[in-house]
Structure formats: C-alpha cells, structure tokens
Design goal:
single chain, 10 strands, alpha+beta, 13 helices, 2 domains
C-alpha cells in the first residue's frame, strides 16, 4: 500500500504528462475493444442475414452441361424419402418488378412450398406464411419483408394490401398474406442497389405464369448431426442413377460457403486487432520515456532515499509501481470507453452487441504487460544509482 500511495502521489506531480501517457494507452485499448466488438457484432448480423437468404443448408440443382435434364416432382419425392433428409422443398426464381411510389423497383420472386419456412428462416411479423391451399391453387399471394412494406405504404403491417408484380410476361396483382423479417436487412441497407428485393410466392404460381413444370433448385434440410458433404454426394448419386446420367446434378453446401466467408471475417478482425495492438506498443514506449524523465528529475530524491537505507528492490519497486499504475488506469479508461461506444453503436444500428472476450482480455493483458515491461528499464536505472552520485546532482 505504501508503494501504491507513493506511486499515485508521484504521478500527480506531473499531471499533464501523466494524463497524456494514460490517454495513449486508453486510445490503444479502446481501439482494440471497438474493432473486436464491432467485427463480432457484424459477423453475427451477416450470419443472420445469410441464413435468412437460405444460405445455411444444402441445395440441389442441375449442371449447366445437362440441358436435357431438369428437376421435377419425381426427383423431389426421391430426395424426401432419403433417411438423412429431414425436409426438402422446390425452389423457383424469376426476375420481377414491383411498383413503388409510381416507379418500378427490381425484385426477385422466390417460388417456394408451404414447408419452406422450415428450411429458410422466414419469421412472420404480421399475417401468416404460405400454406398448402396457396400452393395447390397457385394463388396470387405473396410474402414481403418489412423494408419493402415501409417503402410502399410507410408502415410495417400491410397484410391484405395489393401489389402489382411482374410475373412471367405479364403484370399480376398479388395480395400480401404476410410480412416477414428476413434477417437484419443489413445487406440491403449497405448494398441495396446491388441486392434486389425478395418476394416469396407459391412455386405453383410461377410455374403457371411461366408455363413450367420443373424446378430451378431443391432446398434440403438435413437431420441433426448429418454430414452435409456426404449427404450431398448421396443425393447426387441417387438422382444420376434414377435419371440415367453421370454428372447432370450438383449439390451445393451453402453452409460451407458461409463458414468460409465468416473465416475470412475472423481473419480481418485479427488483423485489425493487431494493428490496434501496435498503438499499445507505442504507448508502452511512451511509458518508458516518461519514466526515464521522471528518474532524471528525481535523482536527488533517489539519492536521499538510498542514503537513508532504501534498498535497490524498494527503489525499483516504487518506479515499477508507477509504470504499472499508468497502464492500469489507461487500460480501465480504454475498456470503459470502448464498451460505451460499442453499446451506443449497437443501439444506433439496431444490432445485437456481441463481445469478443478473448481479444478484449488479450488487449487488456497486453496493455498492462507492456507498461510493466517498459517500466523495468527506468526502474532498474533508478535502482542502480549510487547515493553519492545521486546527491551530487543539482
């Protein structure tokens, strides 16, 4: 306690210099905390968004070289009967346009089955999802996301309203059966000019409008614990065997692609955190500079203490405590500021705050360690002074 009190009192002698050194450490710690929290929250938001777009399962499609082969009802039944498959649903896609305030906006019609909500993350905010009656009758009903509802009617709940959609080669009126929340809307908000609006309709409605009987893809949900790669190969082999082909079908493990993207984001997080750690290293050098100046300024004080019987260990411990105290104060301020800004940012962007605890603890530990390491040399310089030489200094 005596060493701590003495260190605190000595740091208060040069408050401006101490404050600037503490500020350097606080900025370094806060930057690392912000990078870690923002990136982790961003990864969570991107994960939810990709899953809402259906990028968390397995899809089966035909190869581009297989012009005479297409996915049909028989293929769908075969896939559904396989043991590792929990759910399978047909998927059709069609380019469309939706009228928004007198102007046409690009959209993509997703033709889905009544069980698609169990494969793709479709969460109804208002109304309902598509049911079997909609699919059997090829009804002109649709599901829209909350962002599109606000663009057209300036409110979220537009169940029962009519939308004019381009389906096939003609415009048709669709009744909004439900408003869904697809992920966080993050991708649409950031690059909305490149990602069109998604509207979900019964797949039989698109088939009737385009005079088709086949599917573009079949979305597959595998049972828990199943290996997506192996099950994908099993489905492809069965389809090729039934259709008398060798390489007409493809399986796409979308979960694996999503994991690859998230791995890249993790690497970016680590790189940015390393850049922030460089600032902590610079702050450690500033601690060494400040402590060396302090040793020079207090040379006579050191001589007096050693003349009165202070040991080398006591002198070294005193100066080392000052360096550690600077690091601890700067680290505490940096952590507080970093978390405060992270919370405010999460609230502003309406995203859930996820804390990357490993990087935060690493930053705090590195800040304290750097302060301690860079404080050793000035402390040892003070401890090695001879009392006679120290007392001669003016």
């Amino acid at each position: 306690m005596d060493f701590a009190k003495s260190a605190f009192r000595n740091l208060g002698r040069k408050r401006g210099r101490t404050a600037l050194t503490v500020l350097g450490i606080a900025i370094g710690v806060a930057s690392v905390v912000l990078v870690a929290n923002i990136s982790q929250s961003g990864i969570g938001a991107v994960t939810n968004e990709l899953e809402s777009l259906g990028l968390s399962g397995l899809t089966v499609s035909t190869s581009q070289n297989a012009e005479a082969v297409s996915l049909n009802e028989n293929d769908l039944s075969l896939i559904r009967k396989l043991g590792p498959v929990e759910q399978a649903a047909p998927v059709l896609m069609a380019s469309s346009q939706v009228a928004v305030r007198g102007a046409d906006q690009q959209a993509v019609l997703w033709g889905i089955d009544s069980n698609a909500g169990e494969i793709i993350s479709l969460k109804p905010l208002y109304g309902r999802l598509l049911d079997k009656k909609d699919v059997l009758t090829g009804a002109n009903v649709c599901l829209v996301d909350e962002n599109l509802a606000k663009k057209i009617y300036f409110r979220s709940n537009i169940v029962g309203k009519k939308l004019s959609l381009l389906c096939g080669n003609s415009r048709q009126e669709f009744t909004v059966a439900g408003v869904i929340k697809t992920g966080t809307g993050l991708l649409q908000n950031l690059i909305g000019d490149y990602i069109p609006t998604f509207i979900y309709v019964p797949y039989t409605t698109i088939q009737a409008a385009t005079q088709r009987s086949d599917y573009d893809q079949i979305a597959v949900r595998i049972r828990s614990g199943g290996n997506a790669e192996n099950i994908g190969r099993l489905i492809v082999n069965r389809l090729n065997a039934v259709n008398g082909t060798s390489d007409a079908f493809l399986s796409n493990n979308l979960a694996k692609q999503k994991d690859g993207l998230l791995h890249v984001l993790d690497l970016v997080t680590l790189i940015l955190s390393a850049v922030g750690a460089v600032s902590l290293l610079v702050s450690g050098l500033s601690i060494m500079t400040v402590m060396l100046v302090s040793v020079h300024e207090r040379t006579r004080e050191i001589g007096i203490k050693k003349a009165l019987g202070a040991t080398r260990g006591a002198i070294m411990t005193e100066f080392l405590c000052e360096a550690v105290m600077i690091s601890l104060i700067g680290c505490a301020i940096g952590l507080a500021v970093g978390f405060l800004v992270s919370v405010l940012g999460a609230q502003y962007f309406h995203t859930a705050l996820t804390v990357r605890s490993d990087i935060v603890l690493m930053a705090a530990g590195f800040a304290v360690l750097s302060g301690t390491v860079f404080g050793v040399y000035p402390a040892s310089q003070a401890a090695r002074m001879k009392p006679v030489d120290a007392l001669r200094q003016e």
